[in-house]
Amino acid sequence: MENKLNNVNELLGAFKFEGELENVTQLHDGHINNTYKFDFRNKNGELNRYLVQELNTYVFKDHEGLMNNVMGVTNHMQKKVLENGGDIKRECLCVYPAKDGKPFYIDGENRCWRCYNFIYDTHSCQCVENAETFYNAAKAFGKFQQMLADYPIDGLVETIPNFHNTVSRFADFKKAVADNLSGRAEQVKDEIDFVLAREKDCAVLTDLLNDGKLPLRVTHNDTKLNNVMFDNETNEGICVVDLDTVMPGLSLYDFGDSIRFGANTAAEDEKDVSKVSLSLEYFEAYTRGYLSAAGKSLTEEEINQLAFSSKLMTLECGMRFLGDFINGDVYFKTAYPEHNLVRCRTQFALVADMEKKMDDMENIVKNCCKELGI
Ligand code: GN1
Ligand code: MG
């Protein structure tokens, strides 16, 4: 039995699991939380699986507010799935509360744990293998947004304030450079200059929001491809996961961040930046899928900014990786000392390629709208 946890017995006492524990496996999808699959066998010989996750409380300071958001949003979506005759345990995350009724458990070392349904017969994807997969991811995120369109924004706390406020991210970045806590700033002058040269871009979406030209919506804010679970048989994106950053935001954050990760021809941490580029084919597939699911509810200004938001979310993520490298790798999990630097370089190579292809991207958006009658 693989078991890297030192408090399995404590967790077994904390949640209402069914059956005898057979196996614990760590899952390595995200850069922030620690995630495990717990397999239990019940008396009838059936397998019960759960997803048990340690929330990163350095990143998420308000675990109660966060779990309140997650409870509210998952309950809302469960109702919608039931109304449509769907299966909530496959099409939704469901929180299994701890024995004391709280949606989380604080262990003896003050770590915060929560337990979800494990979504059977699905898989996640670490990279786009074909345009259809990405199209299916787009439909899933579009549908996710639609399901939460009537969720009360005021009922959500900001789990990370100013999460996609790129102006605020730029200020954080400049502070990281000025503080230079790791002493690494000298070695990344070119990368720092790349960010500084694009200061003006950072305010485009926040200015439109402040001027009332873009609507605030309930958004996911972390629309990486690996946050969609795909059905093993149909390959449809049946469930959107990783709901820690669901909060008020712009639809463009979700669109742009999906493109950043999924339309890159290379991995987020590819060391050979000559492999990095924007796939126009994947950009088109995602745009078509997203617009077909959510397009009718988007405003004209949202649609106008789709291509630009892809570039901005890529720049923002790159500056976060670089800032973390300069801060000494305190935020994102890293596998080796230069990991954040490698990640920021892929993001900047992608930004540079998007700048060259911006007209093509704009045209793809226009053509998709025409085709779909939007
Ligand atoms: C983090 O947890 P994960 O890997 O889905 C990060 C995102 C970044 C992403 C970059 C809470 O997402 O904002 O875009 O890494 N999540 C948080 O891969 O900061
Ligand atoms: Mg994730």
* Number of alpha- plus pi-helical segments: 13
Instruction: Give the radius of gyration.
Output: 21 Å
**What is the arithmetic mean of pLDDT?**
96
Helical residue percent band: 40-55%
- In the predicted model, the low-confidence regions spanning at least 5 consecutive residues are none
Ions, cofactors, ligands: which are bound?
2-acetamido-2-deoxy-1-O-phosphono-alpha-D-glucopyranose, magnesium ion
Helices and strands, in order, run as HEEEHHEEEEHHHHHEEEEHHHHH
Beta content: 5-15%
Largest sheet: 6 strands, antiparallel
Helix/strand/pairing class, anyone?
Answer: alpha+beta
What is the overall silhouette?
Answer: globular
Number of strands: 11
Q: What is the distance, rounded to the nearest whole angstrom, between the alpha carbons of the first and last residues?
A: 53 Å
Which characteristics define this entry?
374 residues, alpha+beta, six-stranded antiparallel β-sheet, three-stranded antiparallel β-sheet, 13 helices, 11 strands, 45% helix, binds 2-acetamido-2-deoxy-1-O-phosphono-alpha-D-glucopyranose, binds magnesium ion
